[in-house]
């Protein structure tokens, strides 16, 4: 029985600055239009373009218009499924989600999108969309409706397909290269093609692509955040009035252009790292990590939310826009991360192997932090590093991570730092959760002392030489104590480079 890929199932949840499905569809359609001839669209709406009117007259007379040279920009809206069959014998319902695939006629590459899961629903309303650019004619758009199962493998409920041929589409009794096609596809049983098992409603928007290029997914960047109150309880997060503080959460961002940016770049687990060997050479440990991954990334347990991230401001708003440190693993389908820290259970729940679901290789892995930046348009700066002892990513591939985020979140300010760069320790000190309790106190004292020195520097010259000398001696003694404490803090693993991930 086929196993579906790991993709975004989640329950929708309202959140600040999060775009709803319907609104995100409008945003995506507007973006698609603006990237492919917004001036022509404006002229059509105003009806003031003489050239367009002449073109419409020609089309009405039946003259064929040559197909676009660079294919089409296509936005597919997944509306709803109806009359689905029952798959769960205990409640007489099903937990359906849809996997859409767009395959060019030359089979040059398959582009895939998966909807969220609707639990106990035979008539789910999805209202989701995805965008493709440079789509050639005769591209096959296929759909599979799956039933989500917890204890067993997911089952295929029905299949349908449709071939995108704009030349054969007629709207308003004339041919057009721009339009909307409502579809109501009949779903058929996976093993009994003659058996009908419900319908799937889609809406396909298309228009000519202006620039040459290969077919690729434009987005949107969807995310799933899974909350685990049980893990939060173990970590001592007992503020029951706030979900964000009482729970430990993991994130899954479905970034676009991952294959285009990383190509064949892969990083296997580091066989020279003893702790990694203890994980990957022990089947029982591997199974434990997979169980931990399934529990933390579960969307049917605890609380979960999903949404759309359109730019840098959305990204930082989703992550709280605070001084926080996260571990991450980049997989072929998604960017997975969680907040890390020096606390034992927090560190245990943010291992790179856990995010990778015990996979022996990842595209990249490391840590990132979010710091305030007044010069950045979004008000924050993203710091990406390759600090992972488990996979030991090469520093020459760090620019790929920067390029990936810049492609997905317009306007984002990214900085990459190698794990051996001394600057990384300074960034650790700016994020309290990344340090141990003692190291955090020392860092706070250093910041406080630096502030006092700056505030008293202006009046220091007015004091007498005797007092100045006395203060200088005290300052020297304090600096010695400070250096001593700083060296002891640097010796702590939590305050320095991360070699335990």
- By secondary-structure content and strand pairing, the structural class works out as alpha+beta
| Assembly of the depicted chains | single chain
Strand order of the largest sheet: 15-12-13-17-16-19-20-21
Can you tell me the overall shape? globular
Tally of separate domains: 2
Distance between the termini: 35 Å
Mean pLDDT across the residues is: 74
Total beta strands: 21
User: What count of helical segments does DSSP give?
Assistant: 15
Biggest beta sheet summary: 8 strands, mixed
Strand content is 25-35%
Helix percentage range: 25-40%
Residue windows where pLDDT falls under 50 for at least 5 positions: 5-26, 31-62, 450-477, 482-500
Cα Rg: 27 Å
Describe the structure.
This protein is 31% helix and 28% strand. The strands form 5 sheets. It has an 8-stranded mixed beta sheet with strand order 15-12-13-17-16-19-20-21. A 5-stranded antiparallel beta sheet has the order 9-10-1-4-11, covered by helices on one side. The chain has a 4-stranded antiparallel beta sheet with strand order 3-2-5-6, with no helix packed on it. Strand 5 and strand 6 form a beta hairpin. Helix 14 runs antiparallel to helix 15. The chain is globular and about 60 Å long. The two termini are 35 Å apart.
């Amino acid at each position: 029985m086929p196993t579906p890929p790991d993709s975004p199932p989640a329950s929708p949840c309202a959140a600040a600055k999060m775009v709803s499905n319907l609104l995100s569809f409008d945003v995506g359609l507007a973006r698609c239009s603006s990237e492919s001839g917004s001036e022509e669209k404006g002229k059509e709406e105003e009806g003031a373009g003489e050239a367009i009117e002449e073109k419409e007259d020609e089309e009405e007379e039946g003259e064929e218009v040559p197909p676009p040279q660079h294919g089409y920009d296509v936005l597919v809206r997944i509306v709803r499924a109806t009359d689905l069959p029952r798959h769960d014998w205990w409640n007489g319902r099903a937990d359906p989600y849809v996997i859409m695939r767009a395959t060019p006629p030359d089979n040059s590459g398959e582009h895939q999108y998966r909807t969220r899961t609707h639990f106990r629903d035979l008539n789910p309303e999805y209202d989701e969309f995805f965008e493709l650019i440079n789509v050639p004619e005769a591209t096959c758009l296929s759909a599979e409706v799956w039933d989500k199962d917890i204890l067993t493998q997911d089952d295929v409920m029905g299949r349908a397909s449709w071939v995108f041929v704009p030349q054969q589409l007629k709207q308003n009794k004339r041919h057009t290269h721009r339009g909307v096609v409502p579809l109501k596809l009949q779903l058929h049983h996976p093993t009994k093609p003659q058996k009908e098992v419900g319908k799937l409603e889609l809406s396909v928007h298309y228009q000519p692509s202006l620039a040459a290029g290969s077919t690729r997914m434009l987005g949107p960047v969807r995310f799933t955040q899974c909350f685990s109150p049980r893990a939060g309880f173990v970590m001592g997060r007992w503020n029951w009035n706030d979900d964000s503080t009482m729970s430990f959460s993991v994130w899954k961002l479905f970034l676009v252009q991952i294959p285009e940016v990383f190509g064949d770049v892969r990083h296997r687990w580091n066989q020279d790292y003893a702790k990694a060997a203890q994980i990957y050479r022990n089947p029982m440990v591997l199974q434990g990590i997979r169980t931990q991954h399934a529990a933390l990334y579960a969307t049917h347990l605890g609380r979960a939310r999903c949404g759309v991230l359109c730019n840098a401001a959305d990204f930082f708003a989703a992550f709280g826009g605070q001084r926080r440190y996260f571990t991450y693993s980049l997989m072929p389908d998604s960017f997975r991360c969680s907040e890390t820290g020096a606390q034992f259970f927090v560190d245990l729940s943010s291992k790179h192997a856990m995010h990778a679901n015990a996979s022996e290789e990842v595209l990249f892995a490391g840590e990132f932090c979010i710091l305030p930046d007044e010069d950045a348009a979004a008000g924050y700066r993203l710091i990406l590093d390759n600090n992972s002892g488990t996979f030991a990513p090469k520093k020459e591939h760090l620019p790929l991570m920067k390029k990936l985020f810049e492609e997905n979140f317009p306007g984002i300010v990214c900085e990459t730092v190698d794990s051996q760069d001394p600057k990384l320790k300074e960034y650790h000190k700016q994020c309290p959760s990344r340090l141990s309790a003692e190291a955090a106190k020392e860092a706070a004292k250093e910041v406080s002392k630096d502030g006092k020195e700056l505030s008293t520097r202006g009046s220091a010259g007015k004091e007498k030489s005797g007092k100045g000398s006395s203060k200088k001696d005290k300052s020297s003694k304090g600096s010695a104590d400070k250096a001593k404490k700083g060296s002891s803090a640097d010796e702590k693993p939590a305050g320095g480079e991360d070699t335990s991930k």
